Amino acid sequence: MSDSITPDEILDTKGLNCPLPILKAKKALKGMENGKVLELASSDPGAVKDFEAFCRATGNTLLKSWIDDGVYMFLIERVV
Amino acid sequence: MAEVDLGNAKKMTIICTKGTLDWAYPPFILATTAAAMDVEVTMFFTFYGLGLLDKKLNLSVTTLGNSSMRMPMGGMQMAMPNMIGMLPGVTAGTSVMMKNLIKKKGVASIEDLREAAVLSDVRMIGCQMTIDLFEKKTEDMIEGIELGGAATWLESALQSDINLYM
């Protein structure tokens, strides 16, 4: 669960494979203001490492990632 | 497509030389992902790769000469008999099989990835020499591409952090 953090936007990419979750996350983040938080769900096991790398490279903050009933969940803070 | 040069942005170029369904994936996956990671991407399409810029794509994959090709079938990895690729209709059949698998597994189509690349300002250069060589018509190709040659790619490659040949 996302503890005290309430996401500003929610994106479901379940069923989509690499690189679609990343592309959709980028699109969503682009439309968000600095400091807003995106919650993303993915069924792709490769997304775990990919979102870590994506956030490191783009400067967005990966606040949290966890597995919820077989679904890979991510909380990403938009950093402009 | 000429964007303002931000100076400190990372850059990547990819030379795309192959136009089959399987080989169309690596360049478009890497180009779109790099663009999503704020990398400025240039793709240079030459020889058989130039067909990837056609408005209407009808990509195919063949078993012929592809001895490492395995397809999942009933929980097994099924080797595709190399020689049957010579028979009429087999390449079309294999291609349909692959496209169905791609759809089923939630993998993006090449059309979708290419559109994502266009939308994220990936610079696409069609090789002028290949157009002349194969008598291709630019009106059959997607909008927003540039035409150029080796020097056009080189200028971009010399400023890039990553240059790939596929």
Structure report:
The complex is a heterodimer of chains A (80) and B (166). Chain A has a single domain (9-77), classed as 2-Layer Sandwich (Translation Initiation Factor IF3). Chain A has helices at 20-30, 47-58, and strands at residues 9-12, 37-42, 61-68, 71-77. The model of chain A has no long low-confidence stretch (mean pLDDT 94). Chain A has 80 residues and is α+β, with helices and mostly antiparallel strands. Chain B contains five helices and seven strands. Chain B is of the alpha/beta class. Chain B has helices at 21-36, 90-104, 110-119, 128-133, 150-158; strands at residues 11-16, 40-45, 70-73, 76-79, 123-127, 146-148, 162-165. The relative contact order of chain B is 0.24. Chain B starts with 10 loop residues before the first strand and ends with a strand. The mean pLDDT of chain B is 93. In chain B, strand 5, helix 4 and strand 6 form a beta-alpha-beta unit. The longest helix of chain B is centred in the first third of the chain and has 16 residues, at 21-36. The chains are: A alpha+beta (80), B alpha/beta (166). The A-B interface holds A 15-20, 22-23, 25-26, 43, 54, 57-58 and B 29, 32-33, 36-38, 105-108, 116, 120.
